[in-house]
Amino acid sequence: MAERLIIDYSSPGREGYSLPPLEVPDLDMEEQLGKDYLRQDLKFPEVSEVDVVRHYTALSELNYGVDSGIYPLGSCTMKYNPKRNEDIARIEGLANLHPYQDEKDVQGSLKFLFELKQDLAEISGMDEMTLQPASGAHGEFTGLLIIRKYFEDKGIEKSKVIVPDSAHGTNPASATMAGFEIVEIDSNEEGMVDIEKLKEAVDDDVAALMLTNPNTLGIFEKDIQQIADIIHEAGGLLYYDGANLNAVMGYARPGDMDFDVLHLNLHKTFSTPHGGGGPGSGTVGVKEFLKPYLPRPVLDKEDDKYFWDYNRPKSIGKVHGFYGNYGVLIRAYSYIKTLGGRGLKKTTENAVLNANYMKNQLKEEFVLPYEANSLHEFVLSGIKQKEKGGDTLHIAKRLLDYGQYAPTIYFPLVVKEAMMIEPTETENLETLNKFINTLKTISKEVEENPELVKNAPHNTSVRKLDEVKAAREPDLGWQN
Amino acid sequence: MDYVSNTAKEREYMLEEIGVEAIEEIFDSIPKDIRLKRELDVDEGLSELELKRHMKEISEVNNSLEEYTSFLGAGAYDHYIPGIIDHLISRQEFYTAYTPYQAELSQGTLQVIYEYQSMISELTGMDIANASLLDGGSAMAEAVLMAARISRNDKILMSSAIHPSYREVAKTYGDPQGLEFVEIGLDGGTTDLDELENNLDEDTAVIVVQYPNFYGSIEDMKKIKKLKEQYKKVLLLVVANPIALGTLTPPGDFDADIVVGEGQSLGNTLYYGGPYLGYLACKNDRKFIRQMPGRIAGATEDAEGNRGYVLTLQTREQHIRREKATSNMCTNEALNATISTIYMATMGKKGLKEVAEQSFKKAHYLADNIDELEKFEVVNIDNYFHEFWIKTKLPVSKVLAELKEKKILGGLDLAKFKEEKGILLSVTEKRTKEELDEFVQLLEAM
Amino acid sequence: MNIPNDLFYTENHEWISVDGKEAVVGITEHAQEELGDIVFVELPSVEEELDQFEEFGVIESVKAVSDVFMPVSGIIVEVNEDLMDKPELINEDSYGSGWLIKVEVEDKEELEELMDSTDYEAFIEEE
């Protein structure tokens, strides 16, 4: 039974708000603004406080969060969101700060932000970080702008960025926004960068190669040193997409792999909540030689005083109105403070262990397209099941019936009927086994009762939704 | 502490199943010469109690707005946030959920987005809104790119009465696309429309104005609408304060093509500048909808004819269109949009109007009194909403420092942006008559 | 699989039917099946002049986007306006009411670079 819209709860005259009295002399708004500027009507809900609470509570019950169960989405790192970080983010002295307050008033926060920068730089092997980008894609865009500015500053013309065919869509999209042309290179049969194809694609015009390591198949690009050399020798730079950092913390650092710029996803690796699609934070790290181009202002320190340095003549400019998603940074900082260096390493170890265990238990039932060792995530193919009448989409929807979230499907593009699975370190053995067994059960269902799988989901609040209708007849708001 | 549940024994078992002696073996796929050969130089982890003590200490070094009466605005506003919002968005199903790609398990998030889109459309007088962008500044930048694509021109006429940081963000986004930015000067507290008209030609993509503008004034929207009509291809992009729209005629009524803005004032905590959210709304025109950046939720039916919601028109987005996407937007500000949706529903038709009007009336009470003082002048005394610009014969930093001594944050020193001089003050419904009177008395005594 | 033998075909699954100097272009039944339910079509403007194999439009389904390319060089004389409101015509009748554009052909010799129905059938077998 669908929950109504909030506007359907409206009853003329109902109010749910409470404001203090005016106290100052009243004014006639029509006289003040003039007829042309006085709003005639605002067709907003008229509901009571209880209406609002009932409605949004009901909506929350139609959702599934990480606290509900496993969320094995590849490259999303849906790990547990620690509650103590939520408490901390609500400390008044940390939260109730206006961005234009005197630096003297916010030294406590500037100090922890500075420490966060240092910790993230240490973890990733970079020399300096900016906390300004508000999402991973925003970070990619920022990093690519830095690359662009660097070459401009050196008087070198570069127009292209190389992206592997296994890359996340934000990579080519961000590069286009940064003014580059995309060159896509095919992966080899092991799912890794094809060195020969890379050599062919690299020329004087290439500004950068964007990579994630391990790649979207969870496989570590062991030729990374050679790859870095090829790009650097051609005068290009190497960009690291940090989405998969959970696989390497304490074991390897992108900075040590010769990456020049990177972004990290704090809402992935560093446990900040996904919020239904944000807020996130995509902090960007650079090597020393790229520091001048960082967005302004840069957080700096002199003696014991922290300040925002706006005097950055070579900066790319600003990508955010203020300093970035500070509220998300608090949570990431708390997380790092909780785990410490050893805890981060243990996190990576268990993320990798959990994924390899799952892969081991599932590789018989499903097709494993790439045999190479994988780390924190792995990709299966549903082609065997598709031949029997239930493809990856059907399997994903049937998983929902069992109260578990589906993995990432149809990505990366290099695998047919792909299922990209990343359990993360916070899932326990029972949950892993439950997921494994459910997938095996559904695979059997495809053989024995394919219609059941094809018409899934059956047990969710709505049955399979008509996306074609939604695209052909857009209904994007209740006024339509 | 870490958040790993499995015991050593359980991990042993898993290693056995995989056929590996120790976990380190799995990392053999990482070449030895790039392995980190030392421990990470990050402080030892803290227990929950130690962590909370540590963060409390940090918070005590700060002086938050709790300790002041604040008149700071300039893009981040101190409005009253109803208590129920935090309770509702603290429900794990909202804040720990992923992006609603598996729609059948995400109807909560999707319906909230649909309601958000509906209310933003209504508020701005437009037809369609997206699910949110990263913040007001980047929303304006994305809208400029969108307008350039639709009009197929690259000259951007941008008012200097727009927030300076927003203009900087727009240029950061626009330069790689080869856009040409012409910043139109001020005439008093509003945009110089003669200068705007002189720069308008058939190469213009879009006119961008803020409403009310950075200094608090209301632009002559009727005249701007007429100017835009001179050239068929030119679009009008308005950056609007959503609270003010509770009582101001919406930009849609002045023929705006795209409306964007900062949604922070709709129920979001100040949080030192973020997370906030950008909103974007436009006309129901096929060309516009397909050029919109960001996610969009739409209503549809399920296999049994029941109403449901999905992310739709996804072929605009990066995960399908890749380098040809309208934007690289992926993660947006969904939880903040949820906050704003609940705020708009709670305040409702009457409440939003009252917040806007109280802010307006209190600002006017304060400004009128300040303008009477000998050493102070309200530059835009004849036209402002709830923010206004004052100039003084006294040194601005001294005025603000003295006010701060008395626990008043008197506003923003405009010298920060190196464009104009003076102080930008914002008044919201939170300020009391007593606070306003005290402010005036202190200024008088200077 | 319907592959009319009076048409020519491209490797990108467009078909072209020529009558004198005018040709009609669409996508094949195989192509519409691969794309799934089509939700939107972007077509060029009339009078636009395009080269052989140049992109002239975009066809979108819910989860995929496909560029369409000119089988021959020519000037666009008409576009199928019905597809604005009913893109599903391409799924329902890809060789008939689902046509995309009508083109004034510049050089009929370019047709020799395309496949006939037999070649096309073999081509999609191999894919």
Task: Give a quick summary of the entry.
The complex is a heterotrimer of chains A (480), B (446) and C (127). Chain A is of the alpha/beta class.
Description:
Chain A has 480 residues and is an alpha/beta fold. Chain A has 3 domains: 6-56, no CATH class; 83-338, 3-Layer(aba) Sandwich (Aspartate Aminotransferase, domain 2), CATH 3.40.640.10; 341-467, Aspartate Aminotransferase, domain 1. Chain A has 15 helices and 12 strands. Chain A has a 7-stranded mixed sheet, with helices on both faces. A 3-stranded antiparallel sheet of chain A has the order 10-12-11, covered by helices on one side. In chain A, strands 8-9 form a two-stranded antiparallel ribbon. Chain A is globular and about 75 Å long. Chain B has 446 residues and is an alpha/beta fold. Chain B has 2 domains: 69-81 and 353-444, Alpha-Beta Complex (Aspartate Aminotransferase, domain 1); 84-342, Type I PLP-dependent aspartate aminotransferase-like (Major domain) (Aspartate Aminotransferase, domain 2), CATH 3.40.640. Chain B has a 7-stranded mixed sheet, sandwiched between helices. Chain B has a 4-stranded antiparallel sheet with strand order 13-14-17-16, covered by helices on one side. In chain B, strands 1-15 form a two-stranded parallel ribbon. In chain B, helix 6 runs parallel beside helix 13 (334-372) and helix 7 crosses helix 8. The two termini of chain C are 14 Å apart. Chain C has helices spanning 29-35, 82-85, 89-92, 117-126, and strands at 8-9, 14-19, 22-27, 38-42, 49-50, 55-61, 65-69, 74-79, 101-105. Chain C has one domain: OB fold (Dihydrolipoamide Acetyltransferase, E2P) (Beta Barrel), CATH 2.40.50.100. The model of chain C has no long low-confidence stretch (mean pLDDT 92). By secondary structure, chain C is of the alpha+beta class. Chain C contains 4 helices and 9 strands, in the order βββαβββββααβα. The chains are: A alpha/beta (480), B alpha/beta (446), C alpha+beta (127). Chains A and B meet through helix 1, helix 2, helix 3, helix 4 and helix 5 of A and helix 1, helix 3, helix 4, helix 5 and helix 6 of B.
